[in-house]
Sequence to fold (867 residues):
Amino acid sequence: MHFTITKAGEIPRFETLGVRREGAVGFARIAAPPMNLLGPELVRDLVSLIQWAEADDALQVMVFQSADPDYFISHVDVTRIKEYREEAAKLTGEASIASLFRHLSASRLVSIAQIEGRVRGAGSEFVLACDMRFAALESAIFSQPEQAFGAIPGAGGVQHLTRLLGRGRALEVILSAEDYDAELAERYGWINRALPASSLGDFVRSLAERIAGFPKAGHVSVKERINAISLAPADDFRRDSDLFGEGLRTPEAQSRIDAAVKRGFQTRESEMDLARLLGDRSDGRTLGS
Amino acid sequence: MHFTITKAGEIPRFETLGVRREGAVGFARIAAPPMNLLGPELVRDLVSLIQWAEADDALQVMVFQSADPDYFISHVDVTRIKEYREEAAKLTGEASIASLFRHLSASRLVSIAQIEGRVRGAGSEFVLACDMRFAALESAIFSQPEQAFGAIPGAGGVQHLTRLLGRGRALEVILSAEDYDAELAERYGWINRALPASSLGDFVRSLAERIAGFPKAGHVSVKERINAISLAPADDFRRDSDLFGEGLRTPEAQSRIDAAVKRGFQTRESEMDLARLLGDRSDGRTLGS
Amino acid sequence: MHFTITKAGEIPRFETLGVRREGAVGFARIAAPPMNLLGPELVRDLVSLIQWAEADDALQVMVFQSADPDYFISHVDVTRIKEYREEAAKLTGEASIASLFRHLSASRLVSIAQIEGRVRGAGSEFVLACDMRFAALESAIFSQPEQAFGAIPGAGGVQHLTRLLGRGRALEVILSAEDYDAELAERYGWINRALPASSLGDFVRSLAERIAGFPKAGHVSVKERINAISLAPADDFRRDSDLFGEGLRTPEAQSRIDAAVKRGFQTRESEMDLARLLGDRSDGRTLGS
Fold:
């Protein structure tokens, strides 16, 4: 394990996660400045967090939050794919965050995403891997931007979105690489519900405490039966992960990523409106031209 | 069969169902005071009703209603599980209401639930087994409360809700054991539509008559093709039914049921707000403590 | 191929489709007066259009529109089933529009339906076969009317609607043969979104251009992965197509079609309110009596 617990029951410290615990509910606040990119450090800490939480039999529910009001998880750091994949392998034996996220879905832990700010790419796929997703009406933004570079979502997005949204809406959101606000994300089934930011925290805490108060054997049983129907086979996650990697390694993808970087891709300020950045033709050219 | 028809075409009398017929449409009004619990009598009558209706070739559509404005079907009588299961076996050969409900879904009869009041647990599962569900905006309340005791829904709720609501919302409603009003139930896909109580009856009657006027061979064909895609295999219903029974037989479940009974579980008045009863910690303890 | 291109890149002319092209996006406007019935001519032209579009490597997205504000595609011409099926066979080798439509779903081309007016029966099934569907709030109307005659939808409607709407809503819309407006079609998941007619065209064009600007290899990959989950097997489309034909050939169906024709079925004016025509009992009789 990648953390040290000095006293029994003590909460380990993580570089990119602020973790606290209230009874059977854990809260993990993502804090990976400047924009909560999913890089090796955050993956390492997520792996450690899951190991710690699963090892603690009294912990039933994990709530994920963000310390950055504009970014929950922006997306993967495309310059460090190999590194973060190696971190993921420390939990699952597979160098893939698809496999890490699927582990969370299959875990005995109940996971709830409390979403403020942007969740794009692997950020969206992380919250899709959580058991439930509640988002702030005013600030949450959802996107799978991979196809702007010619890749498919590689960490479960295809699997979850197709099942949740249906064929037409899944094709729309993945082919368009557009931003979707919380209201539309709710209508499409991307999230459970959109709530006013002012009530989101209390709602999630109350729900988490309620669930945590019910028998843990039941959590396992309910998750097993629902996952048996709705969680895609591990091989489909693997295949998507491989296709994502292959897609990004093509010269066309590399050239489009370079063009996007020139426009500010992977910077906090420019990604506030990533959808426009990816699709903009106002300067007479697209990413691909 | 568990009813007697003295004259050809005459409608049998049931202890807990008020049945009338208008042309090719039958109406069954559930009346099992004090709170429409699903016990042996109501299961016995549902079995008889289905036998009678299926035997009558001129009957095409069955509408289910409630005589109690506050309860459609509250849930199973947890003190009489063995007894009501034996009644269900008289239709399907299997001592399980999951099997009874699935029989209704697969029947040549078109079934429509007109929901006013509470449908919780097996009540929710009964309306999910119907081919369509329309609910009164003002009064209908939906819940799968089983996990408050550590059990999964055992009469098809996991199968239907996961397919209708998707993984995230199905996990939410089943793990939380919360009450959902008709508006949210519609948004989640639990029901077809929520309608004002003042127009619900006319809407359902008109829809039932319209459908009943179309060819009965078509009803069978449509239901077969849609069920082939969306109705879970009988074995999955059986497995859920077994898990429900196993879950409720644990000492933890028994202790939580006892604690709930002390708070008024299975009484008409206290179950008006069952969600609170199950999750309340205001007296310093939960059902489990 | 059933069209002639005189110069490289020139757009062929079609009797029932007005086709134009803007960069990587093609626009096909359905114009088959008096009511955009799907007969042999329109099927022939759709086959040719797909062949032309798929052969042109620079074309990425096809947008389908209607020249008739009241009818997008009304439904098949029930008097010419054999003929239009033979036209469909020229693309797929199978005498079935189910197979033609499924070809479009599986195509490398991204297809978007921009729906104004009525889409019933095979019209609905055509837009369901498109990758995305956006409809005018004021004018779009959706229906699968087949069961009014005792047939199932035969061109993919059962497959798509059951997966998109879920069991209850799919049973409702198919068993009722009712009209659904765009707002309800959106709530049910029949379409991606309903938009005001005044903004629909710009929205669709902008989305089409955005998608067309992304790498074409990615379109193929995304569609393959999403179709692997959500597009029903060809055999299920074939079976539905056969059942549709069998259903319509029964004496009961023929008699009901005759009765509907007497009420104006397959005429522009009377089909403005087809749902009423099919279900009306105000003259003391239904189609079946």
Remarks:
- The radius of gyration of chain B is 18 Å.
- Chain B touches chain A through 39 residues (CB under 8 Å).
- Residues 40-55 of chain B form the longest helix (16 residues).
- Chain B has a mean pLDDT of 95.
